[in-house]
Amino acid sequence: MIGLVLAAGAGRRLRPYTDTLPKALVPVGPEGDEESLTVLDLTLGNFAEVGLTEAAIVVGYRKEAVYARKEALEAKYGLKLTLIDNDKAEEWNNAYSLWCAREVLKQGVILANGDTVHPVSVEKTLLAARGNGQKIILALDAVKQLADEEMKVITADGQGVCKITKLMDPATATGEYIGVTLIEPEAAEELADALKATFERDPDLYYEDGYQELVDRGFTVDVAPIGDVKWVEIDNHDDLAKGRSIACQY
Where is the Nucleotidyl transferase domain (predicted)? Predict the structure, then answer.
């Protein structure tokens, strides 16, 4: 099993940082510190801490910034890194971005969005949840108070995910998918096919819509509750401020 980071997004709501950097390389350490840790740093550190030795990073927008840091990141975290180019990063949504890593999925991955600040306890929770035939396990926050923007999930006992979408009444949701998934090798081909069907239907769809496609086909997508932990998806400057307050605790 290896790590996988989706880091192709532009993150235009984080300008001026993202004028020159992809969202995954926006600093989440003290403001003004040019050597500050980034979301990518934190995620690669998590991968290394749970014993992974390789990771792939899907790059697109401002990919040259990731290429420039590749060797330094490999040395810092002891990971062999493979960069995968997404040629439509500024045109299509991330269902296509994850599909670009379809060959990597065959190794089994811990997938992390490049904008999610989270503790290593999330990866540990996913790894601990393996062993009962699950093929895909989503990290689920069942504690947070939800609103309209979150990627919400409805589950059923013994059946895993029934629905995953932003477009549902928050009151009906079991919890929020935080952007970290364990994907076993056995799920790779079916997931790649579902992702392809998803972006061919509408290139603006999310990879979570690919998960829904799997569920609609009768595939079981499981969840692992992460407990009451501090994390944030960084979409805008308010999120970035929260991410900085969280990152310093890890």
Answer: 3-218
What are 55-113's pLDDT values in tens digits? 999 999 999 999 999 999 999 999 999 999 999 988 899 999 999 999 999 999 999 99
Number of Cβ atoms within 10 Å of the Cβ of 91: 11
Can you say how many angstroms the Cα of residue 142 is from the centroid of all Cα atoms in its chain? 17
102, 6 Cβ separation under 8 angstroms:
no
Q: Against a cut of 0.90, is the pTM above it?
A: yes
| Under 8 Å between Cβ of 96 and 63 | no
pLDDT at 33: 59
Q: Let me know: does 145 contact 196? Beta carbons within 8 Å.
A: no
The model's pLDDT over 195-228, given as tens digits with 9 standing for 90+, comes to 999 999 999 999 999 999 999 999 999 999 999 9
Domain ranges in the chain? Answer: 2-247
Distance of CA 244 to the CA centre of its chain: 18
Instruction: Kindly write down the DSSP assignment for every residue of 67-135, as one continuous string.
Output: HHHHHHHHHHHT-EEEEEE-TTTTTS-HHHHHHTTHHHHTT-EEEEETTEE--THHHHHHHHT-SSS-S
Q: How many angstroms separate the CA atoms of 231 and 242, rounded?
A: 9
CATH of 2-247, one of 3.40.50.970, 1.10.1020.10, 3.30.360.10, 3.90.550.10: 3.90.550.10
